[in-house]
Automatic annotation (TrEMBL):
The lineage of its organism: Bacteria, Pseudomonadati, Planctomycetota, Candidatus Brocadiia, Candidatus Brocadiales. The keyword GTP-binding does not apply. Keywords: Chemotaxis, Cytoplasm. GO terms for cellular component: cytosol. Pfam families: CheW (PF01584). This is Chemotaxis protein CheW. Residues 20-160 form the CheW-like domain. It comes from Candidatus Brocadia sapporoensis. It comes from the Bacteria. PROSITE patterns: CHEW (PS50851). It is found in: Cytoplasm. One of its GO terms (biological process) is signal transduction. Its main location: cytoplasm.
């Protein structure tokens, strides 16, 4: 039993080391989240989003960004939070997932944080039926917890399929 516990500690330490680095933090419903800075292509202010029929409610539509059609996912709705009116701080973070650009709508962008392995803890078990695979872990910075998201899993296969359908030319 002791050997199993020590192996788990080593595995968790290796995970923490592989997840340390720079994260762009943003706010949703008053809570701070972070995504790996290497996944971020740009941050833009809110702009006209063209709705697309027959997409899930969290898929707000598409934008034309310098001639490229990019789908936009509202993270509030994706996470089951209540929709809110856009403010001057609302912005779209353009991320690259599986070589496809997708915009994620957030309340506001905070800062870029350098997260070390000492700041990281694995995501807690939140009960049956709750998908914790979207979390890279929890960062404890300045007496606050920031939830680090695996954007590849947040904007998952379903969204990637929609992105390919929305941006392909017939």
């Amino acid at each position: 039993m002791q050997a199993v516990m020590e192996q788990k500690k080593k595995s968790d330490a290796m995970d923490a080391t592989s997840r340390e680095g720079k994260y762009l933090t943003f706010v949703l419903c008053g809570e701070e989240y972070g995504i790996e800075i290497l996944k971020v292509r740009e941050i833009i202010g809110i702009m006209n989003i063209t709705p697309v029929p027959q997409t899930p409610g969290y898929m707000k539509g598409v934008i034309n960004l310098r001639g490229k059609v990019i789908p936009v996912v509202d993270l509030r709705l994706k996470f089951g939070f209540q929709e809110t009116d856009h403010t001057k701080e609302t912005c779209i973070i353009v991320v690259e997932v599986k070589n496809k650009l997708t915009g994620v709508l957030v309340d506001t962008v905070s800062e870029v944080l350098d997260v070390s392995s000492e700041d990281l803890e694995p995501a807690p078990h939140l009960g049956e039926g709750i998908n914790t695979e979207i979390f890279l872990g929890m960062a404890k910075i300045r007496n606050k917890v920031k939830i680090l998201l695996d954007i590849d899993k947040v904007v998952g296969t379903e969204e990637i399929g929609m992105v390919e359908n929305l941006t392909s030319v017939s």
